[in-house]
Amino acid sequence: MSKKLWNGFRKGIQVLLENGPGHTVSWVRYHLYERYREWSLGIETAGYQGWGAANDSSPDNSVYEPVCYDCLDRVLALLGIETDKEVFLDYGSGKGRVVTVAATHPFREVIGVELVPELVSIAENNIRRASGKFKCKKVNIVATDVTTFSVPDDVTVFFFFNPFTGNIMKKAQEQIYRSLNKNPRKIRIINMNSASDPDPFESCGWLQKTQDIPPGWWRKMRFVIHSNSAG
Ligand SMILES: C[S@@+](CC[C@H](N)C(=O)[O-])C[C@H]1O[C@@H](n2cnc3c(N)ncnc32)[C@H](O)[C@@H]1O
Is residue 65 in a domain? Predict the structure, then answer.
């Protein structure tokens, strides 16, 4: 048995002893699905990266950690994307998991914004590797701090998986609001955060909560989708 497989087996026994059989089945299913999706897309986005943005910039910036594939697949399936009409933006795109999966849907364009240069080049490599499976033909990562980013006026779906908090989040919200004033349109904002944390979009009076997907097994995270009334 390889060392990796043996370590996985030992971890599984530990999970079983500490949390019982129900939790262990979900844990095994989660890990198998994560490996399957990485393999099927031919990319490497797993793992927590301690050298994320928070180390060398504002404490409001989060470090890299990818969203779970199962959660991502479920929320994208709910959107009812209008083929070749919609533009998707992932705020804090890391190694490109969200961008890559979004590009397998019929968006007109998929954009990621990422501060850490090492993560940008990993994401670009992942995009190259998965591009044969894309329905979307225009996929780009913008290497910049989100505070200096200008939101393209045709983005219709915004995705946030815990990229930053505090003033940086406020700036991102202001950017979206300004872009809507310039080009009024229907948008959706998907935010995934811990069920015990407040939803940062709750205070945006220009948005309405349209869906609140209760926490699943994975880290008790929930998705909230907000939308605006314009269109
Ligand atoms: C929790 S990870 C999410 C990664 C990806 N969206 C996913 O779900 O797989 C947050 C990402 O946001 C990036 N980030 C944090 N602050 C940022 C900022 N001010 N501008 C751009 N990216 C930022 C981090 O480097 C990290 O890659």
Answer: yes
Residue 53 Cα: closest atom of ligand 1: 25
Task: Specify the CATH number for the domain of residue 188.
Answer: 3.40.50.150
d(CA 50, CA 56): 11
- Give, for ligand 1, the residue of 161, 167, 193 to mutate: max count of ligand atoms closer than 8 Å to Cβ: 161
Residue 48 lies in a domain: no
pLDDT at 85 over 60: yes
First to last CA, the chain: 57
Supply the pTM of this predicted model.
0.92
Residue 76 has pLDDT above 70, yes or no: yes
Residue 149's domain spans which residues? 53-227
Q: Is the CB of 112 under 6 A from ligand 1?
A: no
137 three-class SS: coil
Residue with tokens 């497989």: 5
pLDDT in tens, 14-37: 878 888 888 788 888 988 999 999
